[in-house]
Each structure stands twice: as C-alpha cells, then as structure tokens.
Amino acid sequence: MTIYKIATENQWTEAEAKGVFNGAPVDLADGYIHFSTATQAKETAAKHFAGQDDLLLVSVDETKLGDALKYEISRGDQLFPHLYGKLSLEAVTDVVEIPLNNEGNHIFPIDFPQ
Predict the structure, then answer these.
(1) pLDDT tens, 50-91?
(2) Residues in a beta bridge with 11
(3) I want to staple 59 with a disulfide (CB 3.0 to 4.6 A). Which of 17, 45, 53, 94 is the partner?
(4) How many Å apart are CA 96 and CA 71, to the nearest integer?
(5) What is the gyration radius of the CA atoms in the chain, in angstroms?
(6) Domain boundaries, the chain
(7) Which fold would CATH assign to domain 2-98?
C-alpha cells in the first residue's frame, strides 16, 4: 500500500542531499513522521497547509518501512500512519508537486487515488 507525506520543496531537497528524510518540524516535535493515506491526504493538505504553494506529495511504499510504521488514532478518530524513525529514500516511489489553483486550493495529480 502507498502512503503519502506532504513536504515542502526545501525539506525534500535537504532529504535528497542527505539520502534520508528526518521529518518536518512538526514530525521532529511529535517524535514520528506524519503520513496520510490516499483518502486522508487532501484533507491533510487543506487543514495543515492551506494556501501553501511550495509543497510536494511524496509517495511511499509502506511495506518497506517495517515495524517502525504504526497506524494510530488521530484526527476524527481515523487511523493515520506514523513512522517512528527516519524515512529511507529507498521507500519513496514518487514525488510530485502540489500546485495551487486560482482559488488557493491544492491540485492533486489527476491519477491520485480517491
């Protein structure tokens, strides 16, 4: 199954330079890397990244994360994937931009799962 991380371009450029993603500031503060499932990603973008235009959607193969990945109850009593460790770039399957439309809403790829 694929899970998703929304990251800024700067955060991801740093991850590529290091070969590993340590997490965004909120991840570092919480002690795990926040991910979303396909059904949660658009709401996550709207709630936590409203109007932000430098975002990337990072697709991750959860089967490559091992026991460090836990599904835990979070927003709206939904189970969200949390990674208790660093994200190896070997688990990343795709990275695409999430641009904004004229109304300031994020535009996800046309083939993004609903």
Answers:
(1) 999 999 999 999 999 999 999 999 878 889 999 999 999 999
(2) none
(3) 94
(4) 24
(5) 13
(6) 2-98
(7) ADP-ribosylation fold (3.20.170)
